[in-house]
From TrEMBL:
Source superkingdom: Bacteria
The keyword Disulfide bond is annotated on this UniProt entry: no
Protein name: Peptide methionine sulfoxide reductase MsrA
GO molecular function: L-methionine:thioredoxin-disulfide S-oxidoreductase activity; peptide-methionine (S)-S-oxide reductase activity
Length: 188
């Protein structure tokens, strides 16, 4: 792995457990970290973010090798793993902390995100409401939220919410999956 050439995309699409579970299975993904961003400089933790008053979103930072998987494919996966047409909501999870957002660190990345929204809009009957926001401070989520799905597969949320999302994404992106990726073997 050549870390200098790796790309990182920070994205929010509802509860971070779902995106975390998916991207840990994807070939070329070297690291996945759940965390909080988008709320300014105030430190964030799970309980404060869940109040919906901090402005932070539950997000994942996905670091990948672009020679194995493209930025476009990672973004198409993001738009498959959540409903980007619901404002501040994913299923039963409601609040700005569950918003659909892509956090950008450059003009080039903003253009990439804008193109991904346009490319994925035909897949949805309603307009995509995904925000493109500047990447601000990143606060890693607590250990119990890292790789949650792998460690809690029998939990109700995993069966009812995460499993159906994973099945839908697998149907579209099966050729990008492998069972032994660095991200899938990492607990944090």
């Amino acid at each position: 792995m050549n870390q200098q050439s790796d790309h990182t995309i920070v994205m929010a699409g509802g509860c971070f457990w779902c995106l975390d579970a998916w991207f840990r299975q994807v070939r070329g993904v070297n690291h996945v970290e759940s965390g909080y961003t988008g709320g300014g400089d105030a430190p964030a933790d799970y309980y404060s973010v869940c109040t919906g008053t901090t402005g932070h979103a539950e997000a994942v930072a996905v670091t990948f090798d672009p020679t194995v998987i493209s930025d476009d494919t990672v973004l198409d996966m993001f738009f498959t793993m959540h409903n980007p047409t619901t404002l501040n909501r994913q299923g039963y999870d409601v609040g700005t902390q569950y918003r659909s957002a892509l956090f950008t660190n450059s003009k080039q990345q903003s253009k990439l995100f804008e193109a991904a929204i346009e490319r994925n809009q035909p897949n949805w009957a309603e307009p995509i409401v995904t925000n493109i926001e500047p990447l601000g401070p990143w606060y890693a989520a607590e250990t119990e939220h890292q790789n949650y799905y792998q460690r809690n597969r029998q939990a109700g949320y995993c069966h009812v919410i995460i499993d159906p999302k994973l099945s839908a994404a697998r149907a579209r992106f099966v050729k990008f999956l492998e069972s032994d990726t660095p991200a899938s073997n990492s607990l944090g």
